[in-house]
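Appendix B. One record, verbatim.
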Amino acid sequence: PLFRSKCSQTIFDTSNIVRSLPYKAVSATVDKSFSGVTVDGKKYIKAGTLVAGNGGSIFDDRTKTVVENKTAPEGIVLYDVDLTIDNTVSVLYAGEVYKDKVNGGSVDSTVTKALPLVKFISKK
C-alpha cells in the first residue's frame, strides 16, 4: 500500500487545480528526460504542467511516458509529484480547472483546442 506522511508539505502553490467534480484522469509515467523543477535536491513535476506522450499518444499506447508539451498537450498533471520518490502522475483530460493554476497561468487557444474536454475557468 502507498504510504503518506502525516506531515505533508506544500512545495508549490498549485494544489487543487480542479474547480469542480467530476473530472477524468489517467495515470502515466513521467519520462526520465523530463527536467522538472528542483527544490532541495529533489526533482518535481508541478500540478498544472501540460503533458503529452513522448513519441505517441498516452491514450493510444498506455506504455508511453509523458513529457511537458505546451503546444499539443494531452492533459494536465493533477498533483505535484516528487519524482525522486515516484514517477507516476495523474493526467487530467476532462473537467473544469482553474486557468491560473495551469501552465503558470498561460492558457492560449492552442491549449484549449488541444484539450476540448477541459474547461478553463477564471477565478473571480
